[in-house]
Each structure stands twice: as structure tokens, then as C-alpha cells.
Design goal:
- The chain is an alpha+beta fold.
- The chain has 8 helices and 9 strands.
- The strands form 3 sheets. The chain has a 5-stranded antiparallel β-sheet, covered by helices on one side. It has a two-stranded antiparallel ribbon with strand order 6-9. Strands 7-8 form a two-stranded antiparallel sheet.
- The protein binds adenosine-5'-diphosphate and magnesium ion.
- The site of adenosine-5'-diphosphate has 18 residues, from loops.
């Protein structure tokens, strides 16, 4: 972490937002189009006693101010233990439940995080205990977040973990979430959908170079990665479905 002149600490490690800094026990993030939605969401979490997210503390000097959550935010995707995956599933469920039926969720069942990967989770004593980075949060279906979480917590085409083991962890995630019935039957479709959507997301950013958060080569590699993961999941669909059955 780099020191910045006013004594604040630059928080690097994120992939989207430049200028996130820590000042004492708070995090300052540049105001964006999603600031208002996120402020309302974080207030709902507080009202409904969901403690797995930062508190919203207001705005100053063009920045949103949030509480700093002590712990570790992993910089890279990696292989997680079963207990860590289960904790992520339970944390995702608790977050969704806290938004169910709220005005913010609108006609959707819940408010989704839409980027609930390990890189946006704060780990305490090895377990994910809070989500951060709600910039992409929006009304949605639980399967959107579950599909993305299953991918980013349990699946990797390039890793050495056998696909059966990856599939078992997808089951652990779904079980910890409490996913049942017809939605469980389309969990693999939800994973594939999120992988395809991810490729499209980075391609759309690449199409607008002036506002893209990083260089075209980096964006191209993320598109390539998303498509590779989609192909891997599709090729092993039956292994994932058997584990979930
Ligand atoms: N409320 C918070 N509590 C603790 N750490 C935080 C908090 N918000 C951000 N961070 C740290 O700052 C980094 C970047 O913030 P993040 O909101 O994830 O931005 P990005 O959009 O770039 O991913 C995170 O990876 C994390 O290490
Ligand atoms: Mg982030």
C-alpha cells in the first residue's frame, strides 16, 4: 500500500475504481452514478441488521465515505477450502435476504451484488465475513449472484484441482446458500450465463476506450479468460450437474 500526502492510505487491489483511499477507520471512494443506489442499499443493510457490508457514512469532497472493515481482501483468485466456500454461500444468502421485499429490489426478488467474487470479500480468520464494492449492485435474481460466485469461488479452467472437486465445491456453495427446487436445476446455466455476460461486460468497456478502466490488452485478456472459463464449464456440464443433483 502506498502512502498518499495527507496521511491517507491508497487501497490498491481493486480492478475498477481508481482513487480508493483509507483514512483512519473509513474508506473514501470517488462518487459515481451508482453512489445514490449504494448509499440506500448500505442503509437498508444497517436497518435490517446485516453486518456483512460497510456502513454508509456520508459524502465529502466528491467522495463517498464508508466504514473500513478490518481483515484481508485477497488480490487474486485462488483455490479455497470447503469451509471458505460454504461461508461465502451463507454470506451471499444473508445479503440477499436483507434486501428481499425492499423498495430498492423493486420487482426483482433481491438486490444482487453482481461482483460477489473473493476479490470483493473481507476475510477474517480465514473466512469471508463481509462484502465490499457495491458499485455494480442492482435488482436481480439470486441465481445471477450465485452463478458468478460459483464461478469465481469454485471453478477455474487452468487450476490443478480436478473438475469433480470443483463441482463438489459448487454443491457446497449452493447448499450453504440454501438453493433448492427448480432454481438448483438451472444453476449450471446460471454459471454459464454469468461467464458469457462477463465477456460481454469487458468487451463493452473495450468498445469505449475513453472511459475504460484499463488498457485494451488487459481488457482483451479478461474477455479471453471469461470465454475460456465458459468453454470449460460447458465441457464439464454433466460433472457440475451430477454434483448438484
Ligand atoms: N469498506 C472497506 N473495508 C475494507 N477494505 C476496503 C473497503 N473498501 C475497499 N477496500 C479495499 O480497497 C480495495 C479496492 O476497493 P473496491 O471497492 O473493491 O474497488 P474496485 O472497484 O477497484 O474493485 C479493495 O480490494 C479492498 O482491499
Ligand atoms: Mg473490488
Amino acid at each position: 500500500m502506498d502512502e498518499v500526502p495527507n496521511g491517507a492510505i491508497m487501497l490498491s487491489g481493486g480492478r475498477m475504481t481508481n482513487g480508493v483511499i483509507r483514512v483512519d477507520d473509513s474508506v473514501h471512494r470517488p462518487i459515481t452514478d451508482s453512489s445514490e443506489f449504494v448509499a440506500t442499499l448500505l442503509k437498508i443493510f444497517e436497518e435490517r441488521k446485516f453486518f456483512g457490508a460497510p456502513r454508509y457514512l456520508g459524502q465529502a469532497d466528491g467522495m463517498d465515505i464508508l466504514s473500513f472493515i478490518p481483515g484481508d481482501v485477497p488480490a487474486r483468485f485462488q483455490v479455497w477450502e470447503d469451509g471458505q466456500v460454504a461461508a461465502a454461500g451463507a454470506l451471499l444468502r444473508a445479503m440477499h435476504d436483507a434486501t428481499r421485499g425492499s423498495k430498492l429490489a423493486g420487482r426483482s426478488p433481491v438486490v444482487c451484488h453482481h461482483d460477489a467474487g473473493p476479490n470483493n470479500a473481507v476475510f477474517v480468520r480465514g473466512l469471508p465475513t463481509a462484502w465490499i464494492d457495491f458499485d455494480t449492485a442492482a435488482p436481480g435474481s439470486p441465481l445471477e449472484d450465485l452463478g458468478y460466485a460459483a464461478w469465481t469461488w469454485c471453478i477455474a479452467s487452468k487450476c490443478t484441482v480436478p473438475v469433480e472437486r470443483q463441482a463438489k465445491q459448487v454443491k457446497i456453495l449452493a447448499d450453504a446458500y440454501g438453493l433448492q427446487g427448480p432454481e438448483r436445476g438451472v444453476m449450471v446455466d446460471a454459471i454459464l450465463e454469468r461467464q458469457a455476460r462477463n465477456a460481454r461486460f469487458w468487451a463493452e468497456l473495450m468498445a469505449s476506450p475513453d472511459t475504460a478502466p484499463t488498457e485494451p490488452e488487459v481488457l482483451a485478456s479478461r474477455i479471453e479468460w471469461s470465454r475460456r472459463e465458459f468453454a470449460f464449464t460447458a465441457a464439464h456440464r454433466s460433472a457440475f450437474e451430477e454434483a448438484l443433483a
